[in-house]
Design goal:
homodimer; alpha/beta; Metallo-beta-lactamase, Chain A; 7-stranded mixed β-sheet; 18 strands; about 20% helix
Chain lengths: ~300, ~300
């Protein structure tokens, strides 16, 4: 099981040549989930060699431009690349209207199906599920309706303990799937061999929580409890804590406090205001509260395997 | 009198790290006119150090994404930069609806006045005029409603021929403006001194014609006749003339033919398809028809003074 997060952009507000607005790709169990899509995201996707065709699900946290203005361009480019496979977009209500109006007025017909999944709930909800992954919203506290997203692997199959299985003559290959599924083995004489004596626990499922944009908001702590990786916005440092409060953003210190209280394993900071030229200060501010912290940087990859 | 054209982007279709979609800034008589606004234009404006605050008029040729998707981001950035001065946008009908819907749904209120000037005419029309400049549309032939733009300096004031004026004792400083305006001088004894004997012709007005996107279209020739500078799209080379015809774009050879027939002074080629890696071929194809031809390149500046 593995999880790989590629940062495409991690700056707030207006795009600059070396400071792109928010976008990330999360690779988990053969899914490539695109999270947010600021202006220029499609260029970053090319730059960091993510294959366009692999992206089938896009998650938009909120409809501020630095998280959203690149979506129409990406949709159009998919079309120019002759995409046929369907695209699912999870976004606050309104995104569909904007995209469809633009496609209509620009007469840019797309030849692949786009399914919009309007997000409206103010409580955490399951929005995607397959055999291996489930995704929940994380309601955040921002100036407009905003969700973070929690990506969770499901508990995998149990691993066969072959040394022990080969000692049992009656167990055949056709029994393996039942064992992987956790079933005990019943011998011909009626004796039961416990599944735990024949299999090993699967690796613990991995999880990633994306929380941007948001003010300091303790209500998200139970939702993101114990995640392996947390991306929490830190638009400001504590020198601007009042501005953070006013604009409903967070400081690095506040992000660290959320990480600590939620017992996450690692914290990534991002969504920096352009006023800060030296980003190391974000680490300096967060570390006394939460040690395992790193800066998001464009092109940086965070990988976890187990 | 001078004219300075800065190319911000000159490639067709999808943006790439080193191939931005169409946008240009024309500096003429202290105006900074932005022409087209593909995704990433605001980043290019920063990169090539054009001052955001100087842009007061934006001209959108048509509503295809590679000429238009950067507009909402630019409008939002103007707002973040606390712009107060008004902005005029000349664009096909529909642009206003798209921009206003996005501003509404993203709750991004702008605090400066935006005036949309809907373009709907299929004949060339005067859309802007002040003391020194006038701007006309150039109806083009493309898959959707499209205009090019003709920027023309007005004929300036006549220059005083001081050597001759100082020979005439009766002419005082307060008479100079009348002479600049072309009036004859009437002496106290009733004798008339012709204006031409006291002034020099002003430099001929400069003109720039922007023609993108368009198929080969001879109807535009009388409108752009004799301009100093013509930007004519050349998405393709003649190896793809059928594709050019089908998609209503032009080849370099066709652009050169238009330049020749319109007797323009200089031709700039641009809007290259990404299939061409060696852009010198565009020059090779155009030169036998029209000699004074150059390639548009990002950051390249074309200046004319007289």
């Amino acid at each position: 099981m593995s999880l790989k997060l590629t940062i495409l952009g991690c700056h707030s507000a207006t795009p600059r040549t070396f400071a792109h607005p928010t976008s990330q790709v999360l690779e988990i169990n053969n899914h490539f989930f695109l999270i947010d899509c600021g202006e220029g995201t499609q260029t970053q996707i090319r730059k960091f060699k993510v294959k366009f065709s692999k992206i089938k699900h896009i998650f938009i946290s909120h409809l501020h431009g630095d998280h959203f203005f690149g979506l129409i361009g990406l949709i159009s480019t998919f079309s120019l690349l002759n995409r046929q496979t369907e695209l699912h977009i999870f976004a606050p209500k309104g995104a569909e209207e904007i995209i469809n109006l633009q496609l209509k007025l620009t007469k840019s017909w797309v030849h692949y199906p786009i399914y919009f999944h309007d997000l409206t709930s103010i409580e955490s909800e399951l929005i995607f599920e397959d055999e291996k992954v489930e995704i929940f919203t994380i309601p955040l506290k921002h100036r407009i309706y905003t969700n973070g997203f929690l990506f969770k692997e499901k508990l995998g199959e149990r691993k066969l303990n072959m040394a022990k299985i080969l000692h049992q003559n009656e167990i055949e290959i056709c029994d393996y799937q039942n064992l992987k599924n956790g079933k005990d083995f019943i011998k011909e004489n009626g004796l039961i061999i416990s599944n735990k004596d024949l299999t090993i626990d699967p690796p613990p499922p991995l999880s990633y929580a994306y929380c941007s944009d948001t003010a300091y908001y303790e209500a998200l702590i139970p939702i993101i409890k114990n995640v392996n990786l947390l991306y929490h916005e830190s638009t400001f440092l504590e020198d601007n804590v009042e501005l953070a409060d006013k604009t409903k953003h967070s400081t690095a210190l506040q992000a660290a406090n959320i990480a600590k209280k939620a017992d996450v394993k690692k914290l990534i900071l991002g969504h920096y205001s352009s006023r800060y030229k030296n980003l190391e200060k974000f680490i300096v501010e967060a570390t006394p509260i939460f040690k395992n912290v790193e800066l998001a940087e464009e092109g940086k990859v965070f990988s976890i395997e187990n």
